[in-house]
Amino acid sequence: MSKTPIRTLLFGAALALAVAPWPAQAEPGVTDDEIVIGMFSALSGPLMVNGADPLNAARAYYEDVNARGGIHGRKIRTVIEDDKCVPAESNAVARKLIAVDNVFLLNGGACSGAVVALQDLVNREKVPHVFINASGDTAVFPPTRYQFGSIPGTQRSTMAAVVSFSTEQLKGKRLALIGPDDDMGRAAYRFVKAVVEKGGAELVAYEVVPNNATDVTVPIVNVRAAKPDVLMLATYPAPTILVVQKAYEYGLDLPIVSAIQGVSSAPEVFAKSVGDNGALENFYYTVPLAGPLGGPELKPFYDLFAKYNPDRDTPTLTMPYGFPSAMAVVKALELAGRDLTREKFVDALEQVDFDSGIMVSHIKFGPDRRDAMRGQVVLKYDGETLTRMPDVYEWDQIVPPDSPALN
Question: Which of 49, 250, 365, 393 is 20 to 30 A distant from 322 in Cα terms?
């Protein structure tokens, strides 16, 4: 019987290993039976009102998908963290979700600063990141490969509605704007200028107030001196309340049109804070929702939220914002197929275009589009009754996305 030298056997085994196909490396967060999604939002702290209910709405949608069989034979498992809407915290929890929990993608963020702080991380690590309800312009303009967001609309969306309504419905020719001294305020100002110039109106006053302002007398005096037809606001709730009160006190008898961020978690809370419905006689604000809170359009989503969050009897105004982000994630996972990778998921997400039933416009992404929802409507609010005004305003139908005025 012939004997093969050991050295020859070892060489043959090495050669066989060299040419044999190695098993493909598993994609992070994907197994035969599950997809792991890392979720984070403000679950505590002063901005919890913006973050907790939207995150739990998204989680409810994932649980409902699981109850219906999952996606291509896999169930979704979520890992949830609290970032308090603080950029340093969001960076820490995102790193933990990626490196320790080995998630496939991130679905998180209720505040613009928190998601902007993650741009370098997620694009370097090539981890898809879909915001829950953060909507700041700097998070999506210019677009980056792995971040998708602005479900409720950016400042381009809100201010397109504010200015267009002010000029078209209220027939304003001389407009004034008060905004915050931050990235959102500066984005609002740039877009207002672009829309005003296009529409033939004039911005006769622009005043900036800090988010912690306790007195807005000087801005109101300056606005009154400019004699505008309409006062537009891009401020947050606290300064918006001060502006409305001071305008009424100083007899500034003109329509006030506010971006959505000016009204707190519920209109009735805002009215109570203003204190006198006389100040709201001619007050309007924008919203991205397809129907009124408690109305028939949104009822199925409130029912779904209640099913998976039985302890939340009165969810906040922002709760419905959480559903479309989860819907977009699920649609992209379905499009990407069973052979799932992060790159296939991103490519699929760029094809997503659907009517959520929650927002006034389609949720739509594309190779050069990371802001999901571009429409807003306007509500008139007199402190007691909400009345929807006609028309849906979509910013890219008002100012072309490639307009130099936006840069």
Answer: 393
